[in-house]
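From the thread on structure requests for the teaching lab: each student submitted one protein with a one-line request. Submission from student K.M.:

"Model Tubulin alpha chain from Anopheles melas, tokens only."
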Amino acid sequence: MSIHLGQAGVQIGEAIWTQYGLEHGIGMDGQRMAEMADGCDTQFHVCPAFYSENGEGRYVPRAVFIDTEPMVIDQLQAAEIGELFNPDYLVRGKEDAANNYARGYYSLSHRTLVGAIDAIRQMAEDADNLQGMLLYHSFGGGTGSGVTAHLLQQLEEEFPRKTRLSFSVYPSPYLCTSVVEPYNTVLMTHRSMNSMECSFMMDNQAIYSICSSRLSIERPSYANLNQLIGQVVSGVTASLRFGGDLNVDMSEFQTNLVPYPRLHFPLVSFAPIITCENVNHENHDIGAITKQLFEPACQMVRCGSPGRGKYMACCLLYRGHILPKDINEAIASIKATRSVRFVDWCPTGFKIGINAMPPKMAPNGDLAPVRRCVTMLASTTAISDAWSNIDEKFDIMYRKRAFVHWFVGEGMEMQEFSEARENLACLEMDYREADSGVSSDVSEF
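Reply posted by the TA:
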């Protein structure tokens, strides 16, 4: 089940389901595609895990869209893809969360989530065997932080044994859409720390840089950013959607990427990221694209200088015709280089997934069509730099009590600020201890 929350989650959802439709041969109206625009027949691949069939040959995404205001979901319904989604699972409120975590969590979530929980229950009942939930949201928005935190707590109570994974848009170091993003991020992370199994982080600035420097897009728009995110998410979920020789299911992500319950924020990388002009001039063998994953230019979060931090675990998800022998050689080559370091207590470090279904790029899209690609989910101690960066911004504002009255005015206690900040300081310390190899139990807040 996919749950899209807030403006970021809904707009990312539009790109993701467009990408899934291309790969499964399902049109914007939910019907099987007969022919692609270029005249080539597109293969139809049934996907009961992500689409439910209504009995008349129409496929409906197992997705719920939630927002506290109507505008973004109205735009989704008016878009070409809008006909694909079940209107009963498009849940919207009447007023926005104003980039305020407290407004989303305390004031609006009770009203908004009534319909959302009913929709999620209904979808769970319709599923034969619900494996888990994928959430898409931003840390910095009012709905993405406040409503998501409240929803996660309710999901934990209603579906305690189901895996909850999220794709989260993390605040960028220098590029932000809201002044109070540090508050929202710290408060949301504190509140949902124990309700989430794994959160794959991406930041707008890193993706913006990829679009401008690697894809030569002069002024990247959200549509460009979301198309790249859609491709990355597609790489992660390919093993859940297609049969494969060495597939990875939802619980395996958690088992292999989360060494301690609190350290559940893997870094996402994708390769190859290449334009149509350069596609015939670059090396696409397994060794080359695997090596690219460890370059900062292919990573979806900016965290510290290159070479900082150590890897605790890497999950490499390959797509296309790939031989395990080539992957083993590529990994051996990476282990031999000194630039990629692993913590002492995790000598193996790599989890491999291979899916024979080649990637499919959007027609006239930014990325060049390639026969194989790889997505990496990496548990790295370098991510602590991203947390310390946001904590530092939090401290600068909170020292002056700037903007605090907007949060307290929505019914939040002042004490929650200091509790949240203390919890995030513990998270930073946990990552540092993992890096240094200090033998200690990671803190339970």
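TA comment: Confidence is low (pLDDT under 50) at residues 36-41, 439-445. The first strand starts at residue 2 and ends at 5.
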